[in-house]
Structure formats: C-alpha cells, structure tokens
Automatic annotation (TrEMBL):
It comes from Larimichthys crocea (Large yellow croaker). PANTHER family: G_PROTEIN_RECEP_F1_2 DOMAIN-CONTAINING PROTEIN, GROWTH HORMONE SECRETAGOGUE RECEPTOR TYPE 1-LIKE-RELATED. GO terms for cellular component: membrane. The keyword RNA-binding does not apply. Keywords: Membrane, Receptor, Transmembrane, Transmembrane helix. This is Odorant receptor. The lineage of its organism: Eukaryota, Metazoa, Chordata, Craniata, Vertebrata. It is found in: Membrane. InterPro entries: GPCR1_Superfamily_Member, GPCR_Rhodpsn, GPCR_Rhodpsn_7TM. CDD domains: 7tm_classA_rhodopsin-like (cd00637). GO terms for molecular function: G protein-coupled receptor activity; odorant binding; olfactory receptor activity. Its main location: membrane.
Length: 308
C-alpha cells in the first residue's frame, strides 16, 4: 500500500510540473491568451491540475484512514466532480471551435472572439456544475442533519450510498457522454465534408482540423473512461478486497493521472506556435524537423543551450 502511494506521489509531482510548464508557456505570449482555442486549452490545464491536486489529497487521506468533517468532504467532492466534467466539456467546445474555423471561416472572428470565449467558459463551468448539483441535491434530501457534523473518511462513493442515487448518477454521466460524443462526431463529419471539397492549402488546413478533432475525441474518451471505473471497482469489491485495492490504484494512475497530463502535453506539442514558445521555457531544446509526410511535425529532444 505504502509503495503504491509513493509511486502515485512521484507521478503527481511530475505531471503537475509538466502542466505548470504548459500554463507558464500559455501566459508567455499575447497570442495565446487572446485566441479562443489557446484559452480553452489553458482552461483544461488549470482544471486538470486542480483535479490532480484534489484527488491526490483524497487518495492520501483515504489510504491512511484519515477522517475529516463531512462538510469539508462536500467541498472536496464539489471540486472533484466539477473538474471531472470541465475538461471533456471544454474539449468538446474546442472541437466546435475547429468546426467554426473550417466550416464557417467568415464568422470565426466574430463567434470566437475573446468576449465570446469568456461567455463560453462561463457556459462550460455551468454545464459542468449540473451533475454535482443534482447528485448533492439528491443526497442531501435523504441525509440526516447530524451527518454534516460527523467525521468520515472522504470518498466519492459516500454520496451515492443508495442504489437509486447511483442510478441517477449513472444516468447523468451517460447523458453527458452521449451529448459530447454526438457533438464531436457531427463536427468531424462536417469538417470531413469540407475537406473533400477543399483543394490546395485549404485541403491541408481542413485535414489538420480533422486530426485535431480526432485528438479531442481521444482526449474526451480518456477523460470519460474514469466515469466507468467506479462501476468496475464496486463489482470487484464484492469478489476480493486486495484485487479491489490494486485495480483502484491502477485505474487512478491509468485513467485519471496519465490522461490529465499526457493528452494536454501531446496537444501542446502538436501546435507549432505553442511548441516554439515551449522550447524557450525548458532547459533543453526541441529540434523540430518539418516532414512532408502525413505525420506533420516530428520533435526530437536534443541537448542544446536554451534560446534567448
């Protein structure tokens, strides 16, 4: 148990450092914090970093059986659930931004302005708060008043202790998964139609847009896989306790920690402007060689002095 906790702490520190580097890079150029897709990318970075931090605290406390007042546990729960949904909802919005850029280029500047981006972020957080509000409302309706002053080991499962509460949670999660999946698929289909009709530079741009939407779909999939992990863990809990503990750590590392760091890093390295800014922030250089093949840009890490 202690070895697993130590491994998780090392990974969390590494992933948080990577995310912080990407966030610092975002604020280094004006073009990043005045462009919609970069701003939304920064929203996912901040949300993922907060999610890593909060989930790691809960993991440590639960591993060592540390209790806390139930009211404080509710605050942790609110932060966790909102962060869980902010990233996939934001990625869906980024897919829509690519759809507007490619299929409605004349209206892109108007629909994706900085002002519109702020409104979009407000909508994203509002939508991400709905599952939390519903689940907590259902829980509070059936919980006793004395519960809020008790000390308990904080975990996400205590808020869905009854079967019907779990059914409501499952229905909400599946509804969000369905809506986001349909949105991304429709965006991909629309962009594909434009790609077939395009030619020259426009065709190259639309194909790049298609790859970006596919990446967003993969990122959303990784984020939403963790929503199904509790159902697997509950089934294993009935079979074997140690198997349940080991699988839970595996799910945490594979479907919560890794996607919250690796997918933003991949997205950042794919973008030419962001990559050029990023190589000024790291202690080693990136040798970016443009390949005429479909792979686009291949980055090889080399030991060279940092550029001024």
């Amino acid at each position: 148990m202690n070895d697993l906790v130590i491994i998780v702490q090392i990974l969390v520190v590494i992933f948080l450092c990577v995310n912080m580097l990407l966030i610092v890079t975002f604020f280094s150029k004006e073009v990043f914090y005045t462009t919609m897709r970069y701003i939304l990318f920064a929203v996912t970075l901040l949300s993922d970093s907060l999610m890593l931090f909060v989930s790691d605290i809960l993991l440590i406390l639960s591993s060592y059986r540390v209790t806390m007042q139930f009211g404080l546990c509710i605050i942790f729960y609110i932060l966790s659930v909102i962060c869980i949904f902010v990233t996939p909802v934001t990625l869906t919005a980024m897919a829509l931004e690519r759809y507007v850029a490619i299929c409605m280029p004349l209206r892109h500047a108007q629909l994706c302005s900085t002002r519109s981006t702020m409104h979009c972020i407000l909508i994203i957080h509002s939508l991400s708060s709905v599952p939390c509000i519903v689940i907590l409302s259902v829980f509070c309706a059936s919980a006793s008043k004395s519960l809020y002053t008790q000390y308990k080991i904080c975990s996400m499962e205590i808020f869905v202790s009854l079967r019907w509460q779990n059914n409501i949670k499952t229905a909400i999660y599946q509804l969000y998964f369905l809506i986001m999946s349909i949105t991304i698929i429709l965006s991909y289909v629309k962009i594909m139609k434009v790609a077939k009709a395009a030619s020259g530079e426009n065709k190259k741009s639309t194909r790049k847009g298609l790859r970006t939407v596919i990446l967003h779909a993969f990122q959303v999939f990784l984020c939403l896989v963790q929503l199904w992990c509790p159902f697997i863990e509950v089934a294993l809990f009935q079979i074997d306790l140690m198997l349940y503990v080991n699988v839970r750590y595996f799910n945490y590392i594979t479907f919560i920690l890794a996607p919250r760091c690796l997918s933003p890093l991949i997205y950042g390295l794919r973008d030419e402007k962001f990559l050029l800014a990023l190589k000024h922030k790291v202690p080693f250089g990136f040798h970016c060689v443009k390949i005429k093949a479909r792979t686009g840009f291949v980055c090889q890490v080399g030991c060279r002095d940092r550029l001024p």
